[in-house]
Amino acid sequence: MNWSSEDVARDVVRRQGAGMPAARVVEVVAQAAVRERETAEELRSPRPAERGLLVSDPEELAEAWAARHVEWRRVQELMEASGWAVYEPERDGVGSAWAADRVARREQALASHAAHQERRREAADEVRTEVWLAAGPGRLLRQAAARAGLTPQEVLAQLAARLVVDEDGAVSVAPFLPSR
Question: Cα–Cα distance between 55 and 133 in angstroms, integer?
C-alpha cells in the first residue's frame, strides 16, 4: 500500500515525538523548516546536487519534509494550546484518529491482499480449455444446453464436475440432466 507524504509524516512524528519535551519539539519544528526550505531550493536549482543511491526522488523528499514540518507544527501548537510539557500521542485526539484510520486502512489492504492471493491460488486449480467438437456431438451439446436454458460451456462445466476416474484410469460420467 502506498502512503501519502502526510500519512508517513503523521506516523513518524507520532513515533518520534512520544515523550518529547516541548522545548525539543520547538527545535524539531525549526529543523523541519530548514529541511523543507533546503529541499524546495534544491528542486528549483538549475543543477541539483549529487545524490547517493539511497536518497529518494528530490520531489518526494521535498514533499516529505513539507509534510513533516506541517505535522510538527501541529503538534507544537497542540502542546502550547493544551499546556503539555511532554508530547503524549495517546492524548492527541487528531493524531490518534489518524493513527486509527491508518491501522484500519492497513488491515483492509492486508485483508484485500490475502483475498487476492487466495483467488490466485484457486484460479491456479482451475482448468480453462477450448473444445472443438465434430458437427454431430456439437449439435447434441447445443440442443441439450438449449433445453436446459444454459450455454454449451455451462453444460460442459457440469459434465466435467461429474467426472469419475476409476482405478484403471477409465473416465466416465453417470447420466444427468443439466440444470441451472
Answer: 61
**C-alpha to C-alpha distance for 92 and 87, rounded to whole angstroms:** 8
In 34-179, the DSSP E strands lie at 164-165, 171-172
- Side chain identity at residue 113, one-letter code: H
Which triple of cell numbers denotes residue 133? 467438437
Cα separation, 1 vs 109, in Å, equals: 7
Tell me the whole-structure pTM to 2 decimals: 0.60
Burial of 35 (0-12, 13-18, 19+ CB in 10 A): middle
CA 167 to the chain's CA centroid: 47
* pLDDT tens per residue across span 53-67: 345 678 888 999 999
In angstroms, rounded to a whole number, what is the distance separating the alpha carbons of residues 110 and 106? 6
Backbone region of residue 169 per phi and psi (left: phi > 0; alpha: psi in -120 to 50; beta: other values) = left
The residue length of the chain stands at 180
**Cell digits of residue 173:** 460420467
